C-alpha cells in the first residue's frame, strides 16, 4: 500500500467509513477521524478478545489464541529467562495473564475496555498514576499499541514502569505485509476505528528510537496471517472464507521470508542506557 489517504470501512461492526492517512512519522499511519466515543466500537459480543462466543469463527479464534500462548512465552523467555513480574497492557479477557499466574509468575493485566473483577486485572484509567505499582521485568503489548489514543504517551508511561534491565514486547499488524497488499481495503489488520494507528517495521523502529528505546530484535507472529486472512475473506463475503484465508495466510508467510514483512511483527526492545 502506498502511504496515501485511503478509505476503509468498519466491516466488523458499524459499517462506517474512515480514512487511513499519513502522519508526521514516516511508516506510521493514523485513522481519521478519531471517534469521540471509542468504547462504542468495542461494545459487541462479536469482539472476541473481550467475549467468549461459541460460533465456528469464535472457535477458530480461540484455537489460534491457545496455540500462540506457547510462542509468546517462548519469545519472552528467550530474552528474559528468569523474569519475576510481568504487565500485559491491553490484556483483553486476561487469558495470557491467567496462564502465567498458573505458572506462579507475578503477572498483571490492564485493559481500559474490559470490566474486571478478577485478581490481577485492572481497567482503571488512572492505572499508570498509581505510585504503589512496582516496575516490571517484562511488559507485553500483544496487539494493543495500535488501539491507544496516543502511542507516544502510552510508550512513555510504559517506559516509566519498565525496570532498567526489563524488556518491552510489542506486537502490531504490519501494513507492508503481503496479506495487506492482497486484501487492500478489506484487510482485517486495519480494523478501523479500533485501530487508531498503523505501523510498518521502519515506522516502529523510528518510534522506539525517538522515545529512548533500543530495539533488540523483530520476529514474526506465525499464526497471525492465517487468522487475519480468514477475517478478511469474511469481510469480502467469501463463501469459502476458511479455505481461502488459509491459503492467502500461507502465501503471506512464504513471501515474508524474502520480504521480511510478515503480517504481524513482534518488536523486542529495552530502555536505552
Word description of this protein:
This protein has a single domain, classed as Vaccinia Virus protein VP39 (Rossmann fold), CATH 3.40.50.150. Helix 6 packs across helix 7. The chain contains 7 helices and 11 strands. The strands form 2 sheets. Strands 6-5-4-7-8-11-10 form a 7-stranded mixed sheet, sandwiched between helices. A 4-stranded antiparallel sheet has the order 1-2-3-9. By secondary structure, it is α/β, with parallel strands linked by helices. It is globular and about 50 Å long. The longest helix is centred in the first third of the chain and has 24 residues, at 56-79.
Q: Please outline the major beta sheet.
A: 7 strands, mixed
Distance, first to last CA: 36 Å
- Helix tally equals 7
Instruction: Give the class-level CATH name.
Output: Alpha Beta
Summarize the structure.
The protein has 273 residues and is of the alpha/beta class. The chain has seven helices and eleven strands. The chain has one domain (6-42, 57-271): Vaccinia Virus protein VP39 (Rossmann fold, 3-Layer(aba) Sandwich), CATH 3.40.50.
Amino acid at each position: 500500500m502506498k502511504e496515501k489517504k485511503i478509505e476503509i470501512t468498519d466491516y466488523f461492526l458499524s459499517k462506517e467509513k474512515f480514512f487511513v492517512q499519513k502522519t508526521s512519522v514516516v511508516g506510521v499511519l493514523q485513522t481519521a477521524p478519531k471517534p469521540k466515543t471509542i468504547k462504542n466500537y468495542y461494545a459487541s459480543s462479536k469482539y472476541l478478545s473481550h467475549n467468549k462466543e461459541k460460533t465456528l469463527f469464535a472457535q477458530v479464534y480461540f484455537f489460534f489464541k491457545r496455540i500462540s500462548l506457547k510462542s509468546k512465552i517462548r519469545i519472552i523467555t528467550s530474552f528474559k529467562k528468569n523474569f519475576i513480574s510481568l504487565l500485559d497492557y491491553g490484556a483483553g479477557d486476561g487469558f495470557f495473564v491467567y496462564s502465567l499466574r498458573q505458572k506462579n509468575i507475578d503477572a498483571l493485566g490492564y485493559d481500559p475496555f474490559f470490566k474486571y473483577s478478577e485478581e490481577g486485572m485492572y481497567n482503571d484509567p488512572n492505572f499508570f498514576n498509581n505510585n504503589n505499582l512496582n516496575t516490571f521485568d517484562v511488559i507485553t503489548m500483544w496487539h494493543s499499541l495500535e488501539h491507544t489514543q496516543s502511542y507516544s504517551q502510552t510508550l512513555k508511561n510504559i517506559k516509566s514502569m519498565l525496570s532498567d534491565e526489563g524488556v518491552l514486547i510489542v506486537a502490531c499488524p504490519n501494513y507492508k505485509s503481503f496479506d495487506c497488499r492482497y486484501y487492500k481495503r478489506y484487510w482485517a489488520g486495519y480494523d478501523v476505528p479500533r485501530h487508531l494507528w498503523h505501523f510498518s517495521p521502519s515506522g516502529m523502529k523510528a518510534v522506539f528510537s525517538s522515545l529512548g528505546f533500543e530495539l533488540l530484535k523483530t520476529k514474526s507472529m506465525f499464526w497471525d496471517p492465517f487468522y487475519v486472512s480468514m477475517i478478511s475473506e469474511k469481510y469480502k463475503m467469501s463463501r469459502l472464507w476458511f479455505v481461502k484465508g488459509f491459503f492467502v495466510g500461507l502465501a503471506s508467510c512464504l513471501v515474508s521470508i524474502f520480504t521480511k514483512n510478515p503480517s504481524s511483527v513482534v518488536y523486542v526492545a529495552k530502555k536505552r542506557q
